[in-house]
Amino acid sequence: MFLRHLSLVDFRSYPSAEVELEPGITTFVGLNGQGKTNLVEAVGYVAGLSSHRVSQDAPLVRAGAQQAIIRAAVVRDGREQLVELEINPGRANRARLGRSPLTRPRDVLGTVRTVLFAPEDLALVKGDPSERRRFLDELLIARQPRWAAARSDYDKILKQRNALLKSAMPVLRKGSRRRTDRDPEELERALHTLDVWNGHLAEVGSSLLYARLRLLRDLLPYLAKAYDEVSAGRGAAQATYRSSLHEEVATQIAGGDVPEQDALRQAMHASFEQVREQEVERGVTLVGPHRDDLVLQLGDLPAKGYASHGESWSFALGLRLAAFQLLRSDLGTDPVLVLDDVFAELDAGRRERLAAMVGDAEQVLVTAAVADDVPATLTGRTFHVTLGEVSREPD
Ligand SMILES: Nc1ncnc2c1ncn2[C@@H]1O[C@H](COP(=O)(O)OP(=O)(O)OP(=O)(O)O)[C@@H](O)[C@H]1O
Ligand SMILES: [Mg+2]
């Protein structure tokens, strides 16, 4: 698929912008702070309903304005669709598909698919586990948008279970005065409620975990290949899923197995039993996909803490390129590939190889502060971005 048109109103630094796009390669060039990333951030937002730079919507709206609007015309198999998003910080966002308003903005997911690589992705390698969990879940949703609902259900259930753990702490805690006072009925009730939430969390949690594991299994071959290509064979990129479930199942998963969802659900229940004391002590849920991690390895060493800057960058890039390849093979159409500032940090060989790898994608949007950093083979059409003005360089 490709974007044919992008239109912004009060998005970031843009009072308004209209950009005509074409398939193939388009490069946005401009000095620092002129609005290149803002532009591609809007593209990523239309696809995933979140920014790769901020977790809140407020910074996306131009300072002084009340709302931002992104419109994108996307063409897939010759058929054009118009997506419109209204970003209203502090209030509900709104989405339209064609002329029809959607009940929930979430329903727009899947219309535009992108894979976006940006400097922030270095955090995939160097940052907290939450960064890698987000990578997996976002890819899951890009692949099958219905996971957005499950993902949000999981967060809600988790919140409620944590609230219960906190509120029932005095009753559940072993040796606490309340418990030795023994109000058996109260204890019974608390245990029963906990059981109910265990059931909900294990149900949604095991399906999410199962989906992540299958996703990872599908992704890994592409990751190894992408890293190998970018680095010209200097190191094997690997990733292992680190599960918070009890040891036996966690070991199995770390070994690359994908247990059936039923087994995962049972393992979650068993793990709840094991950590009950600690959970009650601390008032937080210690088992579930929200506690998991993806351990990245380069050769025999963990990437985090060992890989060089350029290697970390290449690893993060490898993850995104793998995501691109996976979606391409799944969807039967190419997602729009966005490369924000990717070239400045790569050595000459890696630049050229990357250019060769992405050259056949249906649409690639590239940003660069220095035009010469972009390999000649990948320059394509050029737009100049100056202070929120986007103008096309004559061919
Ligand atoms: N909500 C907002 N309202 C107004 N201006 C904003 C808003 N958010 C960001 N900006 C401005 O947008 C500019 C940053 O734009 P952007 O990140 O797109 O730059 P860039 O061209 O990608 O630069 P670089 O080459 O450094 O990556 C900054 O000057 C910032 O002040
Ligand atoms: Mg930028």
UniProtKB/TrEMBL annotation:
The keyword Plastid does not apply. SUPFAM superfamilies: P-loop containing nucleoside triphosphate hydrolases. Keywords: ATP-binding, Cytoplasm, DNA damage, DNA repair, DNA replication, DNA-binding, Nucleotide-binding, SOS response. The keyword Cell inner membrane does not apply. It is found in: Cytoplasm. Residues 3-369 form the RecF/RecN/SMC N-terminal domain. The RecF protein is involved in DNA metabolism; it is required for DNA replication and normal SOS inducibility. RecF binds preferentially to single-stranded, linear DNA. It also seems to bind ATP. This is DNA replication and repair protein RecF. The gene is recF.
